[in-house]
Each structure stands twice: as structure tokens, then as C-alpha cells.
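go over this:
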Amino acid sequence: MKIALMDSGIGLLAAAAAMRRLRPDADLVISSDPDGMPWGPRTPADLTERAVAVARAAAAHRPDALIVACNTASVHSLPNLRAELEPAIPVIGTVPAIKPAAAAGGRVAIWATPATTGSPYQRGLIRDFAAGVRVTEVPCPGLADAVEHGNEEEVVRAVAAAAALTPPDVTDVVLGCTHYELVDEVIRAALAERTGGAEPVFHGSAEPVAVQALRRIGARPEPGLPRTGGLTVLLSGRPSQLPATALGYAEGRMLVGENTPVA
């Protein structure tokens, strides 16, 4: 089994680590675009051109499925990526986990990039899956960039700013950018202070999208299998290794076999 994952940068690490946990036997192909990142400020047409190039580089390795581990690319480029690769390679997009977060009927906060916060795309998800639920959209300027570059001080600053905008009675938090899942412990600590120690339920997309990819190819999670899967890294199409910043996160170290797997 071979699963490819794509993103502009290291936000794909969370989904890759989830896939490694669920199927230790799967070969992983990680395709990112350091030459063209960040994708967020690009026009939809420009972003799609970059995303298709990254997807083509991954597709050359003949994966069984491709995970678009990027919310922004999923919003703007998913139809083009599917037209390019399907039906030969199923393409699985990443959607913020608003539906499960709203299911309990509590107070929901959606942490997302400024471009996604308030967008028709996100508002549509709220309308479709969280009608009647109290939802607060929380913009997180600078957080994804700080995570990408491994800038711990900037991560703490950006998280603190977003936590200050989060209602203190929040019960469920949606991490609406794949980068945010890499610093969920920092986010949890900041929100624990904000809520007086009452920890909300966190909803990420990494494991659900990995499970969906397996489902699309008729496979199932088998975390007890021996770890025999390999790792291929492509940086703007060039064979490479995980960048040093990726190894600053538990998910990156797990992928190269260092330390224990992240929970």
C-alpha cells in the first residue's frame, strides 16, 4: 500500500503521522512546495497551478490514494486535482471538523487562518453542519507561518492572541488549519488558562482524513501490523529528506523512526 500526502509545507505531518499509526505497513509519499509557499496569499488560479504540480510529482510514484492535507488547497483546487488524477488515484480533501464539533450542541470555536475565517466556504460549513449552535470564528494571523518555520516564540504569541478571542465557555475547538495540529499542546495550555481549567474537546482533521483515504481504497486501519512502510519526501518535485523544521515536531520525528509515536 502506498499513500501520498500533499501540502505547501509541513502541515501534512499530522495526517502523515496519523496514517503511519493506522497503517504502519504503508509506504508514504510526502510532496510539498517550499519553492512556492505560502499558498494562502496566492490567487486561486496560481494556487491551483502550484497544487497540481505538487500532486503530479506525488502521482509519479503511483500511490493508491492522495490526501490533500491542506485546507486552502482543498477549498480552491480539489476539483482540478480530482480531474487530473481520478479515477486512477482517489483524491481526498481536508475539511474542518465542524460537523462533529457541533454534534454535541455546545459552544464551538473554529480556529483558522484569516483568509479562511469568515470565508463563504467556512460560513457554508457552519450553515450546513452547525445551524442553531453557537459558533465563534477565531482568526489566527501568523500561526501557520510560525509553525512552518518552527518559531516557538511566535507560536506562543499567535496562540495567546487567538485564545483571547475564544469564548471562555467554549466546549469544542475546531483546528481549521493542518499546521495547528502540530502545536495542539500549546493551544490546549493556552485555552486551559482561558477556560479556568475546563478543557474543551479538540477536533482535528488528521485522523479522519487518513481513515477516509483507507476507506476509499477498500482498506481499514490495522495499527498492530509491523512497521515496514517506507518514506519518500518530495520538495517542489525534488527527491529530498524531511526538512529540519519538520523534525522539530513529534510527528516529523515519528515518520523517520525517532522516539515513540505521537498519541
Summary: The longest helix spans residues 44-59. The chain has a mean pLDDT of 93. The chain is about 40% helix and 15% strand. The two ends are 23 Å apart (CA to CA).
